[in-house]
Design brief:
Helix content is about 35%, strand content about 25%. It is α/β, with parallel strands linked by helices. An 8-stranded mixed β-sheet has the order 3-4-5-2-6-7-1-8, sandwiched between helices. The protein has a 7-stranded mixed β-sheet with strand order 9-15-12-11-10-13-14.
Amino acid sequence: MTYYIYDNMARSFWDAYDDIKAFKHSEYWFMGGRGSTKSSFISLCIIMGVLRDPEANAIIYRKVGNTVKDSVYAQIAWAVDKLGLNRYFIFRRNPLEIIYATGQRIMFRGADDPLKSKSIKLEKGYFKYLWFEELSEFRGMEDIRSIRQSVLRGTDRAITFYSYNPPRSALSWVNGEALTGDQTRYTHTSTYLDVPPEWLGAQFIDIAESLKRTNPQAYRNEYLGVVTGTGGNVFENVEARTVTNEEIASLEWFYQGIDWGWFPDPFQWVRCGYDSTRRALYIVDEYRANKKSNQETYEALKSKLTPEESLICDSAEVKSIADYRDYGCVWARGANKAVIGGKGSVSYSMKWLASLSKIVIDADRCPHSAKEFVEYEFQKNKQGEYIDGYVDANNHAIDAVRYAMSTVWRRGGE
């Protein structure tokens, strides 16, 4: 049975399946474009999980209840059939349930009213699996938390699955939430290109390739799951993902920057690596804090600061730079005043960043940087139209990167 299960999932999901079996995480986020088979994969995981644990039950949510029957219910039925287990399951339509021979249940609900989840009861076992399908349709994490708190109370051995096609806009709540992961979360991205073509059929491939030719941006969002933006994004070259240790080791030069802050504006430090040959910037580490003294932020960063890497700070706070030098960071210096706010300097540095082949941000190590770069948009006029200007808000990591890289972009990006 174990060998057979791998035959029914794309190879790109094998590591995720092993992670789920070992219960290494409590949350699994599966994002991707059309035809990526992420929903098929999750349905297989749930069936196999029910088989392995005689106390395990599952409950699956869509935002709207009347979409359940033709989507997740049909998807779980597909998994049961694919594994040759139809004779062991009972398929009920009212209420929608799929029941294993042992009495374990797979339930299906709409989240039209998240508070209704409080009334769900089980006759046997506990809810080990909770799945939110088409996550982007939900109103936000508040509704998700309400359901999780109701369904998963009393157990610490539960797994929550989230699956969705990333919305086009970087400002969508789900795209923002995907960048705020922690150690309890496993994130996986897949596309139809990871799937054996015969599983999808020639017609599916033809439609995808046709859209790729006629509307590349729509293709990237719908089939590759790329957050393509609304047209107002300043940085369309951002890759928010895990940066491997091998990638970091391959970078020759590193730069550090500080944007001073207290509250509500935060203190922000970043560490960047630059590949001048490929004109690729890597943001690989960050530190953000509110209401911390210079001594406290220095102590938090002391092990990271080395004289081999420049540390360029917002020069508007001369005393803060002097404090860092007194603490032992004698190579700390302020950015050239033109970098801070000189005529055209902000525009030049922003355009330089936007012109790079890519800005790769380690979303695990640098969630604040990832969120800022992905969501940052051009300024709007009173009519809500984008204009060629930059908003001076929610840009603390961006400014820290500008300072860090100022010695590069001021000499033309060499």
